[in-house]
Design a protein that fits this description.
Elements lengths: L12 H11 L15 H17 L8 E2 L6 E5 L6 E6 L12 H14 L14 H14 L3 E5 L2 H12 L5 E5 L4 H10 L2 E5 L4 H12 L6 E6 L11 H10 L3 E5 L14 H4 L8 E5 L9 E5 L1 H10 L1 H4 L6 H16 L2 H19 L11 E5 L3 H13 L2 E2 L1 E3 L10 E5 L6 H17 L9
Parallel strand pairs: 3-12, 5-6, 5-7, 7-8, 8-9
Antiparallel strand pairs: 1-2, 2-3, 4-10, 9-10, 11-14, 13-14
Helix pairs in contact: 3-12, 4-12, 5-6, 7-8
This protein binds pyridoxal-5'-phosphate.
Pyridoxal-5'-phosphate binds next to α5.
């Protein structure tokens, strides 16, 4: 709890209730902490705390968008219910492709020709010429032989990992692995072990230890760009280590596709590893502006997934319009390098400005820009100030990030102008003046 919430002199019942409810964090309501057998008593308590916080402007989740999710959005204000024009700093559409005219036109044309739903999982009647074309485009993008499409990035990770790993195998994860990777690993029943974030000595130690008496296979899973910190995995070194220790390597390209590499193809291009990685996983929901996921790999690996990955086999195919939009998105990536260039100009400018202010932005190197606040109440209060200044940011508390690393997660887009970014900086300055979140000098 923070300074405000623990004021000692406020002892009226209303004030105590206020302090109690405002002191609650999302971490307090995880299911493992449930004190009673009755789940509905628990959801009632959660509802009461989050409703109260919403009244105080402290629950800024699921704000309702009334426009396309671009650099400028119209949002229904949670309190007044009136439309509010805001600068969007919370979208993962790093290149603005979700609203690109060519991509929208492709989706509309696909609706016209194919209707809105795929009608079935891919093995039955849900596989179209569009799906085949997108698979081919993604294989070219990632420099692999073949590609399989999934309905979401989340189900891609769950479907891929749980398909290949079983109780005899070992999964080796970076400490900051995304929830979808962890869930896939848990579902697989494999042994799970972690290494320190982006620490090659730690990875090597784990590879050595797990290599002794290993019965099954070993799969190391990393992310090209980390989703909450924005830093890049040292993939070349990881690749060398994994090969030296005779394990397999999977890279999650959710936040690197469209961002890394000289033509925006992602980590394999950036590290000159095209065609060498065992599993390249990606999503359409970030730079490519849509929804869905994919795995690119060797032909026979993809074929096996098509039959034994339950998240593929037992789920309806991505809709033709989504797939058509993604084909157009790949074309935009290839033919309009300006978006990737603008994104990088924005990244350089914004990060330099935040560093000048001595804000804690972790080790970010990319569009994902954390501003670590470290305290849940303060993070929510700052989010409220930014909202009142028409700046939309996502507050990310523990346990979504490590303890005392509660943060604002700002995402940069190619479509932000310098003026937008300066307005965001001014709003952050105003919030910082009230709730100092500069890093303190080490004593
Ligand atoms: C690293 C990473 N992998 C996978 C996913 C899941 O992707 P999707 O949201 O497209 O289902 C995400 C989403 O946030 C992510 O950040």
């Amino acid at each position: 709890m923070s300074e405000k919430a623990i004021q000692q002199d406020a002892q009226t019942p209303e004030q105590s209730r206020h302090d109690y409810l405002m002191g609650k964090t999302l971490a307090d309501f995880v299911i493992q902490r449930r004190p009673t057998p009755d789940i509905f008593a628990w959801t009632k308590e959660f509802d009461e705390a989050t409703n109260y916080q919403a009244e105080q402007g402290h629950h800024m989740y699921r704000r309702v968008l009334l426009s396309a999710n671009g650099s400028h959005v119209t949002v229904e204000d949670p309190k007044t219910k009136q439309p509010r024009e805001m600068i969007m700093m919370g979208s993962n559409s790093y290149l603005g492709i979700n609203n690109h005219p060519k991509v929208k036109a492709a989706a509309l044309a696909a609706i016209d020709k194919y209707g809105v739903g795929a009608g079935s999982p891919p093995h039955f009647s849900g596989y179209y010429d569009l799906h085949r074309e997108l698979e081919k485009g993604l294989s070219e993008l990632k420099g692999t032989e073949d590609t399989i499409l999934y309905p979401s990035g989340y189900s891609t990770n769950v479907g891929l990992i749980s398909c290949f790993m079983g109780p005899k195998d070992t999964i080796i994860l970076d400490k900051l692995a995304h929830a979808s990777i962890i869930d896939g690993a848990l579902l697989s029943g494999a042994k799970i072990t972690t290494f320190r974030h982006n620490d090659m000595n730690s990875l090597e130690r784990v590879l050595e230890q797990t290599g002794k008496n290993a019965q099954g296979d070993r799969l190391v899973i990393v992310e090209g760009v980390y989703s909450m910190d924005g830093d890049i995995a040292p993939l070349k070194e990881i690749y060398e280590l994994v090969k030296k220790h005779n394990a397999k390597l999977m890279v999650d390209e959710a936040h690197s596709t469209g961002v890394l590499g000289k033509t925006g193809k992602g980590s394999p291009e950036h590290f000159d590893l095209e065609g060498k990685l065992d599993f390249v996983m990606g999503t359409f929901s970030k730079s490519l502006g849509g929804v869905g996921g994919f795995v690119s790999a060797k032909k026979e690996v993809v074929k096996y997934l098509r039959f034994y990955s339950r998240a593929y086999f037992f789920a309806a195919s991505p809709t033709p319009m989504q797939v058509a939009a993604q084909i157009a998105a790949l074309d935009v990536l290839k033919t309009e390098p300006i978006w990737n260039q603008r994104l990088w100009e924005n990244i350089k400018y914004f990060h330099a400005e935040l560093r000048k202010r001595n804000f804690d932005i972790e080790r970010t190197q990319t569009a994902i820009t954390p501003v670590v606040i470290g305290d849940s109440w303060k993070m929510r209060e700052i989010t409220k100030i930014l909202h009142e200044n028409n700046v939309f940011v996502n507050p990310v508390p523990y346990p979504a990030v490590p303890r005392k690393k509660d943060r604002l997660r700002l995402s940069l887009s190619a479509t932000h102008t310098r003026e937008d970014l300066d307005k965001v900086l001014a709003a952050l300055d105003e919030a910082n003046a009230k709730h100092n979140f500069e890093m303190q000098e080490e004593q």
